[in-house]
Write a structure and sequence with these properties.
The protein is α/β, with parallel strands linked by helices and 88 residues long. The chain has one domain. The chain is 15% helix and 22% strand. The chain contains two helices and five strands. The chain is globular, with a radius of gyration of 13 Å. It starts with a strand and ends with a strand. 11% of the residues are buried.
Length: 88
């Protein structure tokens, strides 16, 4: 069981993932957390609002199994999130 609280980087749900076993230390740190804090999405480099990836967001708040691994590690982490996300 992880910690009760974790910080989810906002880039996770505004940029497309490059595969199912994405190297993502931030998401791996969220495994087991019950409450996630994240910042609101801002503007892109052209000054337009970033595209919010609803399916990625739903994955982090739903019951789908998430697969991640840490940088320089071959160990794969599987977890089923059931989180509440706070936007500040």
């Amino acid at each position: 069981m992880g910690s009760y609280f974790a910080e989810l980087n906002g880039n996770y749900y505004i940029h497309e993932s490059k595969g199912t076993e994405l190297v993502n230390n931030n998401v791996a740190d969220c495994a087991g957390a019950l409450l996630l804090n994240t910042s609101e999405i801002g503007l892109d480099k052209n000054g337009k609002p970033n595209k919010f990836l609803v399916d990625v967001f739903k994955r982090m708040t739903g019951r789908d199994v998430i697969t991640v691994r840490r940088l320089h590690s071959q160990a794969t982490i599987y977890f089923t999130p059931s989180k509440s996300i706070l936007f500040f």
